[in-house]
Design brief:
Layout (H helix, E strand, L loop, with lengths): L8 E4 L5 E4 L3 H15 L3 H8 L3 H15 L1 H31 L2
Antiparallel strand pairs: 1-2
């Protein structure tokens, strides 16, 4: 059986990025949640910052965090819902910048 409490390793990547490799899933989920709440970051930005995939971030926040830390889950849920409500605006602004040459 797979052990969830594996050693938590931090690997430095180029340009100062940090990757959490096969570490403690609970701790990773909490760290990602705190980052998103503090920076009002998107799932994509958090995935890039922590060097993990978007689907891993989403699974950590929507499923795993709910079991480990309910208060953090509720905080990050609000930020994610706000991002989801605004994503059509961000897409429109990106298209506008693309065709204006900005």
């Amino acid at each position: 059986m797979w052990n969830r409490r594996m050693e938590f390793r931090i690997v430095r990547k180029k340009h100062g990025e940090v990757a959490y490799v096969k570490g403690n899933i609970e701790e990773r989920a909490c760290n990602v949640a705190v980052y998103i709440i503090e920076n009002k970051a998107t799932v994509r930005a958090a995935a890039k910052k922590f060097g993990i995939s978007k689907s891993t971030v989403h699974k950590d926040l929507s499923e795993r965090l709910q079991q480990y830390n309910r208060t953090l889950y509720l905080g990050v849920k609000d930020v994610l819902e706000e991002n989801k409500a605004e994503r059509h605006l961000r897409g429109g602004m990106a298209t506008r910048r693309k065709y204006k040459g900005e």
